[in-house]
Design brief:
Layout lengths: L1 H12 L4 E10 L11 E2 L1 E14 L4 E6 L4 E6 L9 H15 L7 E7 L9 H17 L5 H16 L6 H8 L4 E6 L5 E5 L5 E11 L3 H22 L11 H6 L6 H26 L2 H17 L6 H11 L4 E6 L5 E9 L3 H16 L5 E4 L6 E4 L15
Parallel strand pairs: 4-6
Antiparallel strand pairs: 1-3, 1-13, 2-7, 3-6, 4-5, 7-8, 9-11, 9-12, 10-11
Helix pairs in contact: 2-3, 2-4, 3-4, 3-5, 4-5, 6-8, 8-9, 10-11
The structure holds alpha-D-galactopyranose.
Length: 397
């Protein structure tokens, strides 16, 4: 795949690119906690995008989407959101760099890969992080990875209209092979935890449901959480976000809450506790206990936070009845996309057979299944081939 992207670049633009790889992500536990300043536990996975890129001496971005076979040129002196949905993620990043005072010279780009779109694996974050990293490298802006993550997140807010938290962009950029990352979304401190893949697999079951309500409902959930914080602040001035809230605090002010907002807030507070406990399980190597928390997370997302859908609920339910499945739940924003399943290697085949069959019977639809490997985050894969010497490209990974 990467070679095809490079070859396409050479044919289209008649020059040599550098190549950046950027990854999609999974999240083991800690859903809808990031924008509440809580904890998440994501990892970058081997669903990836490659960016072949080089300066072009103009003031335009010439971009080609390898997966969609579409080409577009944009004047970088007047960057604004466009009708071309895929280009918005790129332009959003350029706009952020410009806002931070950097001049972004013209460049040529071919990008593409194997992250299924709309499957909840954060293909958009991978696009944003890949380009942010590439431009920073290419033009020497000197920005750190965390700065790039924040810019990528802002690009999503301003050019895709989703008021996302920081998890997806963070995981895509900071992923580390065979490790999950616990991120404190308030302080942005993070810790890598080894994730033993010898006897277990992370299995993603793709409902192929792309719910059109996903972004509007997502923004509504944010507002509901904020409404809860506003109520609690009257009684507990130290509360800045649901991160500062305990179940007891919620309970004591229950009368003031609208029932829906109460359920939303309860879920977030419980999920935060689950992430912290799940990390202790990981440290002890107790994946059984870890898996139980994944099931509990799904229950909360289904009934209290209400961001699931029948297909996700069905898959989580079937998984629960399969021997060898330690935990299962919906993943990401919700309303479609994938479930994530923690499966014992010895039960893997039986599990995939069972869910595929059950899904087909129930929804008359096939079920794409991905076995995720945990890989490194965004990085340089290939520096430009020195033309004069004809030396082989230097592969850094
Ligand atoms: C989406 C957002 C993330 C996060 C998850 C839910 O993936 O982009 O910031 O809020 O939903 O955990």
């Amino acid at each position: 795949m990467v070679q095809d992207i490079i070859t396409t670049f050479q044919k289209l633009y008649n020059q040599e690119p550098i190549v950046i790889r950027s990854a999609g992500r999974v999240n083991l536990i800690g859903e809808h906690t990031d924008y509440n300043e809580g904890f998440v536990l994501p990892a970058a996975i081997d669903k990836e995008l490659y960016f072949a890129i080089a300066p072009n001496g103009t003031t335009s971005m010439r971009a080609y989407s390898f997966d969609l076979h579409e080409k577009s040129t944009f004047n970088l002196e007047q960057v604004a959101p466009t009708q071309t949905a895929w280009a918005n993620y790129l332009l959003g990043v350029v706009a952020q760099l410009q806002k931070a005072g950097h001049t972004v010279p013209g460049f040529d780009l071919v990008f593409g890969g194997n992250i299924p779109m709309g499957a909840g694996l954060s293909s958009s974050a991978a696009v944003e992080c890949g380009l942010a990293y590439a431009l920073n490298h290419l033009f020497g802006f000197g920005l750190g990875k965390m700065d790039l993550v924040k810019m990528a997140q802002k690009a999503e807010h301003e050019y895709a209209g989703v008021m996302c938290g920081i998890m997806d962009q963070f995981a895509s950029m900071f992923g580390k092979r065979n490790h999950v990352i616990r991120l404190d979304c308030r302080s942005l401190e993070y810790e890598y935890f080894p994730f033993d893949m010898r006897d277990y697999r992370l299995v993603l079951c793709d409902t192929q449901v792309k719910h059109s309500l996903a972004s509007s409902e997502y923004n509504t959930r944010r507002q509901e959480c904020e409404a809860g914080v506003t109520i609690l602040q009257k009684h507990y001035p130290q509360v800045n976000s649901l991160r500062d809230v305990t179940l007891e605090m919620l309970e004591s002010q229950k009368d003031e809450f609208d029932a829906v907002v109460y359920r939303r807030c309860t879920y977030v507070v419980q999920e935060n506790l689950r992430v912290e406990q799940a990390c202790l399980d990981l440290e002890r190597g107790d994946l059984e206990a870890f898996g139980q928390k994944m099931f509990a997370s799904h229950q909360g997302l289904q009934h209290d936070y209400e961001v699931s859908c029948p297909e996700l609920d069905f898959l989580a339910q079937v998984a629960r009845g399969c021997e060898g499945v330690l935990g299962a739940r919906m993943m990401g924003g919700g309303f479609g996309g994938c479930t994530i399943n923690l499966v014992r290697l010895s039960g893997l085949e039986k599990f995939t057979e069972t869910v595929e069959k059950a899904y087909l019977q129930q929804f008359n639809r096939s079920l794409p299944i991905y076995i995720a490997r945990i890989v490194d985050g965004t990085g340089l894969v290939q520096t430009a081939k020195p033309e004069a010497t004809g030396r082989e490209a230097e592969w850094t990974r």
